[in-house]
Amino acid sequence: MSESAAFDRSTKHLRKDHANFEIAGKPAVVFNHMQVGLAGGGSFTKNWSDKAKRDIDATGFVPKCRELAEAFRAKGLPVVFVNAIPDPFGILPVYGDLPNELRSTFGGRGYPRWFTDEWYRKGLEVMPEMGLQDTDYVLFNWLVHPFTCSGLDLVLRANHVDTIVWAGYAQHSACTTATLVAADYWFNNILPVDASPVIVPGNLPEGYEGLDDLVAEVTVKVQAAQAAHCTDTATVLEKLESLKF
Q1: Fewer Cβ atoms within 10 A, N terminus or C terminus of the chain?
Q2: Domain 3-11+27-241 homologous superfamily, CATH
Q3: Structure pTM?
Q4: Strands across the sheet with 27-32, in order?
């Protein structure tokens, strides 16, 4: 995989008119799992390797997230981080690649070590690259989409938010799921796809390698487009700069 291919993995699938929109009402930016233990490459799972960190870096999405955070802060708009607690109470779902991957690390550890285990707690922290500010919100979800057990909907409604700009890790899982759930909460959704990577896990069965580009195409053209406006970071920044509310 070349770095240029990873960087353009999702934006090349945007619709031609993706920049033809305005931000509706008051926006907030919500970052999924921009934490040391996930997007930070400080793996929460045994199956991750140095390759995962290299793949994350190759997409170039972390600087895009930082740009969004700084732009929203400059406008006095909500910046929210929702970080995942991988095994919140010691019982993971039976089926699925994600719980199976987490079980390889947390299985049998018992009720929640995230209170006391320093390695676990460190993985829950916002990545230093995001330049966390005192005005930002930091919430914690159980486990995939950011509304579960986090209080995110209360924070957004208390701030009178109409539109959520979603970014973070990862596009085809947490971010896309978040747009679908947020639509049921009646929020508007915008997904700048270059601020959220598609990186297919490396622990899939033999013959499943190289799916990243296919997953990106399906996510941008079909799945995320069901409940969100897919665009890029530069366009969101441009719309934000001229926003009056």
Answers
A1: C
A2: Isochorismatase-like (3.40.50.850)
A3: 0.93
A4: 137-141, 79-84, 27-32, 163-168, 188-192, 229-231
